[in-house]
Specification:
CATH architecture of the largest domain: Roll
Largest sheet: 7 strands, antiparallel
Number of domains: 2
Distance between the termini: 39 Å
Order of helices and strands: HEHEEHEEEEEHEEHEE
Radius of gyration: 18 Å
Shape: elongated
Helix content: 10-25%
């Protein structure tokens, strides 16, 4: 994780069950924290055994750790978990080259029509919505970033995740609306 990673990590202690820690609101795709498996909604409570009180203490700690690895203790849905993050030397991002996979140009699911975003952006854009998803609060213009705490990177990942959803039991959509992250609970 680099300090530039921390620019997108915001502490919101009023919404946390315990004082202290950093609530992860967003991550920069491809950066070390994202690659290590840190997710939106996680709460970072310790770094290399040190208790983290707020985003400033996390940022100060990271400035001294450039180019090495560290263990993050996080809370994910109330469960304590340890994640190893390998930091990038000097804050430089390392791009991973790969062969692009052909993406469908549109997808309709539960009354919503979706289109892919440009390849450099994660998520799927909602073009039109009605039915179950509209009733749950999804709107045209929303960007679906995840389903049941699994990331939606592109149209293919969304299509795969929709096959695992049990509509009668309900599921959680991670959505960006006008630049603001929110969760939508859908139950059919």
């Amino acid at each position: 994780m680099t300090v530039s990673d921390v620019d997108d990590v915001i502490a919101n202690q009023n919404n946390m069950m315990r004082p202290g820690g950093v609530f992860v609101i967003s991550l920069i795709p491809g950066m070390p924290a994202d690659a290590a498996g840190l997710q939106r909604g996680d709460v970072i409570i310790r770094v290399d055994g040190r208790k983290i009180q707020d985003s400033a203490s996390l940022e100060n700690f990271l400035e001294t750790k450039s180019g090495s690895s560290m263990d993050l203790v996080i809370l994910r849905f109330g469960v304590r978990k340890t994640i190893k993050v390998t930091l990038v030397q000097g804050g430089a991002a390392q791009a991973v080259a790969g062969t692009p996979v052909k993406q469908p140009t549109e997808f309709t699911w539960l009354g919503a029509e979706m289109k892919p975003l440009p390849t450099d952006k994660a998520g799927v854009s909602v073009v039109e919505v009605e039915g179950v998803l509209a009733a749950a609060g999804l709107k045209a213009g929303d960007i679906i970033m995840g389903v049941n705490n699994s990331k939606v990177t592109d149209m293919n990942s969304l299509i795969e995740l929709t096959t695992k959803v049990k509509i009668k039991k309900g599921f959680l959509l991670d959505v960006m609306r006008s630049g603001n992250p929110l969760y939508i609970v859908v139950k059919g």
